[in-house]
Amino acid sequence: MTTARGSSDQAAPEPETSEPETSERDAAAPTQTDVRELLRARQEEAARAAGARAKWTVLEHFVHDGFAYQLRRRPSDKAPATVHLTKREEEVLARLFGGESNKIIAYELGLAPSTVGVLLFRAAAKLGAKSREELLSAYARTKKSPDQT
What we know:
The chain contains six helices and two strands, in the order ααββαααα. The model has no long low-confidence stretch (mean pLDDT about 75). Among the domains are: about 45 residues, no CATH class; about 60 residues, Winged helix-like DNA-binding domain superfamily/Winged helix DNA-binding domain (Arc Repressor Mutant, subunit A). A hairpin with a 2-residue loop joins strand 1 and strand 2. Strands 1-2 form a two-stranded antiparallel sheet. It is mostly helical. It is rod-shaped and about 115 Å long.
C-alpha cells in the first residue's frame, strides 16, 4: 500500500488574496473618516450656536486628535452710537483733550489724582478705548457726532 506523496484527505490551503472579503453590511457601514466628518460638522454647528449666544466671533474651528478647537475673538469693543458720559467724565475728558495731565486736572477740579484716573478709566470703558490715545480719538469722534449735545 503505497500512497503518493502529497496526497491526503485534507484539502490544500487556498492561496491568500490581497483583497479582503466585503459583505453588504461592511459596504453600507460608514468609514472612520465619514464618522469624523459627521462629528466635526455637529461640533461646529454646536460651537456656532454657542458662539452666537455668547456673542463671540468664531474665526476658525478645527479638529485635531479627536478634539475640537475654536479660535474666537472677543465681542467688538467699538463704542456704541450713543455713549452717555457723566458730567464729571466729560469735564475731565475735555481737559485731557486740552493737553493737561492727570495731576493738573485733579488740582483744578479739586479732586485726587486717583479719582481723575478712575473717571478716565470709566470713560475709556464706555468709549471702548484701551489706551490714552484711543480715548482721546474716541472722545473727539463723540464730540463731532451730531447725536451728542
